[in-house]
Amino acid sequence: MLKKILATLVLMSSVIIALLLKTSSTSYAAVMPAKVDTDGSITGVVNAKYYDVSSWRDMYDTYQAPVAGQTIYLNVVKDIPGDAQALKGVPIGETKNLTIIGNGHQLYFAASPNDRVGTSRFSAGFSNPGFYSNNDAKVTGKTTLTVENAKIVNGISNGIFSITGVSAANTVYKDVTVTNGGARTGASPIRNEQGKVLLEGNNDFSINADFNFNTPSTTSRGDDNNGEWIQGGHWVEVVNGRTNLNQNWAWDQPFYTYNNGNSATMKIDDNASLNWNLNDTYTMYYGSSTGPLNWDIGKNANFTVNGTSATASHANYWFMSTSFTNFNCHVHDNGNLRVEMAGGPINLDAFTGQVNWQFDQGSKVDIQDLGNGNVIKGKVNTGSAIQFNNINNFTLQSSKTAVISSNIPLNFSGGNGVKLHASTNFDGDDTPPNRSLYKRASNGSLDGNFTTSTMAPNQYSASDLTFLRTAKYIDWRVPSGLAIVNSKMNRSYNVDLADLPRDGTFGPTLPGNDNMQLSVQDDRTAKPNFSIQATILNNQLPNMTKYSWQSLTLANKKHELSNVPQTIETVTDDATLPTDVTTSQGGMNYTFNYHNNNGLLLRTTNNLQQGDGQGGATIRYDVVNGPQ
């Protein structure tokens, strides 16, 4: 019995020894000692622990070690070179948050010290570089990885954070500059399929084949699936500041929407900006993900695409091989959406569901196609529409063909409506042989094929709709209102003292030497409704000069002017305008042409002395609403 017990004890001891040996074999050789941020100057959190790091191994091992606290702050103390260790990443843990504080240092995320050698996700030995979560359902949005204030040279596809499959961690890029390390491989800096990509502060991403933004694809192309800005894209949000993307890769584009959880949202928060500077790209969106595509551009936010004739030129449209259902685009109050490119139209027929765009009060939308196609094209499903709610402007320009070829309804509401300027010329130029169409402010609906219209009170006629079907420039814009513009109102006079009464009384009315031109804009309603008033602000010779006005529109033609506002013209109907009042822009601009015997006239006395001609007067002209 005793032998049996001893044997058991010996056996148990050997097992314990084996376990201890196994435990001791796990090492975190590069785990750095913790420091305390007593004043929060390093981490932003008073008394937070942080770790000084100077290599990828430092970062990986320190994160992987069982350190205390939910957020691990890695404080970069010098430039970090690339090495083989960069490829040997570490899995992230749920709620084990990470912040890499770059302190402005260069982080060379590359598989060797030669940062110009890129590593494709298809390369031999490529597994899970960086900080990654590979299809781990336990990693949710409760986990956040952040890199801030760093200059990253990215030479490994997916970038330093890689969130794939059902993993849903947040990845934050704050005040970073990211450039590609490899000339044609391993350049894609962001991969987050079903988590959130959050962009904070000011960020610049550059993905350029052969490190040149201007090189055409005929001489330089990056490898396919190596140069997307973002692969995945379930949720991409510009939280604040501005983020720039500079891309010239030919075979890739900003988004490869892949395995992104049945929706793709791009959100630009209030007052933030996202700028895409694109040269040669394959398309705009590529991928097979289903569900809706959502663009949400906040109040006073900006989304700008500065493209070239090569942008999206390989696919010849925006959305390639996508399986999106709906396309929802919402530009909030005073938001801006501006696009200039040439690769082809916004192909709405790529969506199997509804296309619904909404532009709110004061929003500005300008889309130019510099190539051979329409700006908007494709048949949409029932329930689709573009809704304009008291916008500032919606402007479409196409250099070679009609701007719209789609049945999508256009619904205008709010305010006093929108005025229209359409042209057969790309830039709206009216110079012959170009032609323009102008319509006063209206609300209502049109279909994108311009076959029907309910616009009112200024209705769009059948000939107007025919014109719109071939227009290369269409601009719907909030009325500018009532104002005096581009006028020439200075006038001089010749006075012969010998012709004036010798008793010092005022002589006859004298004509002016110069013609005068007064231009007024009134595009507010269906008809003009304004008056012009004149007020003498300063007459330097009040006892020897009097000024009067010879009107073009009033029944009582002549009016003496003083320091009290005097109505000199009134317009309420285009049909009753005299010949010396001309209109342009569909009756929204009015020009009063005054010859020498009308407009501002002068009476004076022979008390004038030589040199008094420098006296003169200052007269203010105001335009006011309605007859006065």
Description:
Keywords: Signal. Residues 1-29 form the signal peptide. This protein has 628 residues and is mainly beta. The chain has a domain at 482-625. It is built from three helices and 47 strands. The chain has a 26-stranded mixed sheet that branches. An eight-stranded parallel sheet has the order 4-7-9-11-14-17-20-23. Helix 2 (56-64) links the parallel strand 2 (48-53) and strand 3.
Short description:
The chain contains 3 helices and 47 strands.
What is the subunit arrangement here?
Answer: single chain
Number of strands: 47
Helix content: under 10%
Structural class label: mainly beta
Strand content: 35-45%
Main pleated sheet: 26 strands, mixed
Low-confidence stretches: 1-27
Q: Tell me the Rg in angstroms.
A: 35 Å
Work out the helix count: 3
The outline comes out as elongated
Cα(first) to Cα(last) distance is 123 Å
| Mean of all residue-level pLDDT scores | 90
List the helices and strands and how they pair.
Elements lengths: L1 H23 L10 E3 L10 E6 L2 H9 L6 E6 L13 E2 L5 E5 L4 E4 L21 E4 L9 E11 L6 E4 L5 E11 L9 E3 L3 E5 L1 E7 L21 E3 L2 E4 L3 E7 L6 E3 L6 E5 L4 E6 L6 E3 L2 E8 L4 E5 L12 E2 L2 E9 L4 E6 L4 E2 L7 E5 L4 E6 L6 E3 L6 E5 L3 E6 L5 E3 L2 E5 L4 E6 L12 E7 L1 E4 L14 H9 L2 E5 L4 E7 L27 E7 L7 E10 L5 E6 L7 E3 L5 E6 L9 E4 L4 E6 L4 E6 L12 E9 L3
Parallel strand pairs: 2-3, 3-5, 4-7, 5-8, 6-8, 7-9, 8-10, 9-11, 10-12, 10-13, 11-14, 12-15, 13-16, 14-17, 15-18, 16-19, 17-20, 18-21, 19-22, 20-23, 21-24, 22-25, 24-27, 25-28, 26-29, 27-30, 28-31, 29-32, 30-33
Antiparallel strand pairs: 1-2, 31-37, 33-36, 34-35, 34-37, 38-39, 39-45, 40-43, 40-47, 41-42, 41-46, 44-45
